[in-house]
Specification:
Layout lengths: L2 E3 L4 H20 L11 E7 L10 H4 L3 E10 L3 E10 L2 E12 L6 E17 L2 E12 L2 E11 L5 E6 L4 E4 L3 E10 L11 H4 L4 E10 L3
Antiparallel strand pairs: 1-8, 2-3, 2-10, 3-6, 4-5, 4-12, 6-7, 7-8, 9-11, 11-12
Length: 215
């Protein structure tokens, strides 16, 4: 399986438009949330990325898009995101690592969102190809990247894998917060992020988040 990084284009510009809109909503609706969270835990809450006025951005991002709300207070220096490829219940590859720094204070805080968009580029004799666009956004700005995913399987159907309820992630752990499964078969089971459930999926990409001491 191959993957490669690509510079931004029309997709990235549209994605950053959504990020800018969500930053303004985040500032207006939750400017004090970071002061309320428990220390040394990353609080992750599923949200509807196309709720309300953001619905107009769905044609740019596509139906295979999702977001989670992130709140943190502690000593870690950055938030780190990675993507994992699973095939037939086995993790094959970790790709697409990127991170964003927290503000340098005596007590670091973060109040923002993690957003993902998976758009199919094409399907040919070598499989199905996607462009993944991911961003971590907050009131001070955003970090984002794009990378290509090449699957050896020709996908005929796909569906998101979402976080069912809020979770707390300790500083020394990581957690899957959004994903997409796909198959070349006629049906798919609804799955979650547990290894037992992933065994039921033909092909999955998982996006994981963790706090890091790297600057």
């Amino acid at each position: 399986m191959k993957n490669s990084f690509h510079p931004g284009g029309g997709t990235m510009r549209a994605f950053l438009m959504v990020c800018s809109f969500l930053i303004s909503i985040s500032v207006l609706s939750s400017c004090t949330k970071s002061q309320e969270v428990e220390r040394d835990l990353l609080h992750v809450k599923p949200v509807n990325v196309f709720e309300g006025d953001a619905k107009k951005f769905q044609p740019f991002m596509g139906p295979m898009s999702g977001a989670v709300k992130l709140n943190y207070k502690g000593d870690q220096k950055s938030i780190r995101a990675t993507a994992e490829i699973w095939e037939n219940g086995v993790k094959k590859q970790t790709i697409g690592e990127f991170s964003t720094l927290l503000r340098s204070e005596e007590q670091r805080t973060f109040d923002g969102e993690f957003i993902v968009s998976m758009k199919e580029l094409d399907t040919d004799k070598e499989g199905t190809h996607y462009m993944a666009t991911v961003a971590i956004i907050h009131e001070d700005g955003s970090s984002s990247t794009q990378f290509r995913i090449d699957s050896p399987v020709k996908h005929t159907s796909k569906m998101p894998v979402t976080l069912g309820k809020p979770i707390d992630v300790p500083d020394n752990e990581e957690a899957a917060v959004w994903g997409m499964q796909a198959t070349n078969e006629n049906s798919m089971r609804t799955i979650d992020f547990t290894p037992e459930s992933l065994k039921n999926a033909k092909w999955v990409i998982l996006f994981k988040i963790n706090m890091s001491d790297d600057s």
